[in-house]
Write a structure and sequence with these properties.
Length: 521
């Protein structure tokens, strides 16, 4: 039995921007006709309602003293109701996502579902993190002529400051200069309104998600991976919706630009791709890891995707890519007037003790044991040393990956590079895992890899809600582990994902099973 196809609108809708808008609207209508998509939309609506509770709002916010809405923060029943809506909404969203997995008996997954599930989150306060409020304050710092790489939001001393988490009020910004100037632009456009500025930093974040939604499936198709599975696992992923759309993290624009740059390298030429990746790195620095993938994809394209390019060819293109990337990156730093002060602020995120980081968690446990045994007097001795060891180990692993895979699997290798960088680092947030996790979801086609992606998505989504509710990473890890244990012991994990549902490879190139190097057009 073949799956029903989305209506072919290519010959009925005119080209150009008007045609694209009409195609998107037709996709939305097609998605809305599916009950599972509507079920997931209900989940997003409940998440939006729950976002007005205390778990995702700073103590100083414009909603607190309003009738009805303010009850979600000022009364115990209201707080319980808001937290319950958030938790139930996430569970419904996860359930709908799992039901939409590509299968021989299900409809095609389109971007229409992305729009429907994103719209309620776009209207909600910033979700599961206070970073958006920090972005607004950093934009205000630039607007007042202050250097955000030298001072923190605390110097503002007004509503912008009161919105920022106390941990980050006196810390400089670790982000790229292009990100800060975008935040500056948003603050100016809102007339320096603190809350509205925090809300509208979703605009560049959602632009990043749109770039991801448009170009990652195209990139998958171009290099021989399944387009629909990529949309389901990577684009429609609840972590993307919760953290990149809902949380408005600047990681969204970084990832979107990085994906666009990779597609341009595979389709057009390395030079514009290098410029785009430089812009991505000027949002957030990890995007710089894509420069080698850009060179390798261009080499594949020049060779018409017939055989793996030589290392010499990739190295030759890499020289040009690195040159254009470096020049563009430096030019952006100079043109923004902010320069490279972010270098001295890169250690700012390490101030938080992250229990999602394997290195930090293991070191914290060892620290606790050594202090209890009286071997070390201070509980903060082992962790900093272990974090440095982890970073050095990560660098060595990254070097091995580059030397081992070279040009063989550029996008797959990039995914692994970014994941290694994250998991050997001192701090891991759920949205950090999306840097390389989305490429992992696209390129790793084995049953075990698919199960890992699904389990990680469900686990991190639950962790994010629990962490926001208790504001304790340690408690969130424990509660999420308990939920997972219950799920496994009751046998539900056996139906979590079916391997045959992901084995179709509908859009893979003829004769390929999901891998680089096949050009599927």
């Amino acid at each position: 039995m073949t799956s029903p196809s989305a209506p072919d609108r290519a010959h009925r809708v005119p080209t150009g921007w008007g045609g694209r808008v009409r195609r998107e609207l037709a996709d939305i209508g097609y998605a809305w006709s599916d009950g599972v998509t509507r079920w997931g939309t209900l989940g997003s609506v409940l998440i939006m309602i729950g976002a007005y509770g205390p778990s995702t709002m700073p103590n100083a916010n414009i909603w607190r003293d309003l009738p009805v809405i303010g009850l979600a923060q000022t009364t115990l029943p209201g707080r319980i109701l808001a937290t319950g809506c958030m938790l139930i909404g996430v569970l419904i969203l996860l359930d709908a996502w799992l039901r939409l997995r590509p299968a021989s008996y299900h409809r095609l997954v389109t971007r229409g579902t992305v729009w429907l599930w994103s719209l309620p989150l776009l209207l909600a306060p910033p979700l599961l993190s206070f970073d958006a409020f920090s972005y607004a304050a950093q934009g205000e710092l630039v607007a007042r002529g202050l250097d955000p790489y030298e001072v923190g939001p605390g110097v503002l001393g007004d509503a912008f400051t009161s919105q920022v988490d106390q941990m980050w009020r006196d810390t400089p910004a670790p982000y790229g200069p292009l990100s800060l100037q975008l935040q500056h632009l948003i603050v100016v456009l809102t007339g320096h309104q603190p809350y509205l500025s925090a809300l509208l930093v979703r605009i560049p974040a959602f632009v990043g998600v749109l770039l991801l939604a448009i170009y990652l499936p195209r990139l998958a198709r171009r290099i021989g991976y399944d387009r629909e599975t990529t949309i389901w696992l990577a684009v429609l992923n609840p972590l993307v919706l919760l953290h990149l759309v809902g949380g408005a993290h600047n990681d969204a624009l970084m990832i979107g630009l990085m994906v666009w740059g990779l597609w341009v390298a595979a389709k057009i030429h390395w030079a514009p791709a290098a410029v785009i990746v430089a812009a991505a790195a000027s949002i957030k620095q990890p995007a710089a890891a894509a420069v080698l993938a850009v060179a390798a994809l261009h080499a594949w394209r020049v060779g018409l995707w017939r055989e793996r390019p030589s290392n010499a060819a990739v190295a030759r293109y890499a020289v040009g890519v690195v040159g254009v990337f470096s020049a563009t990156f430096a030019a952006i730093g100079v043109a923004t007037g902010l320069g490279f002060g972010w270098i001295t602020a890169l250690g700012v995120p390490n101030a938080v003790r992250s229990f999602l980081s394997p290195v930090t968690t293991l070191a914290s446990g060892l620290d606790w044991v050594l202090v209890r045994l009286g071997i070390v007097p201070d509980a903060d001795i082992v962790v900093p040393i272990a974090q440095r060891v982890g970073q050095v180990s990560g660098l060595l692993i990254v070097t091995w990956l580059v030397l081992r895979f070279k040009a063989k699997h550029p996008v797959r290798t990039l995914g692994w590079l970014l994941l290694v960088f994250v998991f050997t680092g001192p701090v891991v947030h759920p949205w950090y895992i999306l840097w390389g996790g989305l490429f992992f979801a696209m390129t790793e086609s084995g049953p075990l890899a698919r199960r890992i992606v699904v389990w990680a998505t469900c686990g991190l989504a639950m962790y994010s809600v629990v962490d926001a509710s208790w504001r304790s990473s340690a408690i969130a890890v424990g509660v999420t582990a308990a939920i997972a244990l219950v799920w496994i012991t009751t046998g539900h994990d056996r139906d979590l994902i079916r391997d045959r549902d992901l084995a179709r490879g509908r859009d893979s190139a003829a004769g390929t099973t999901g891998g680089e190097p096949a050009d599927a057009g």
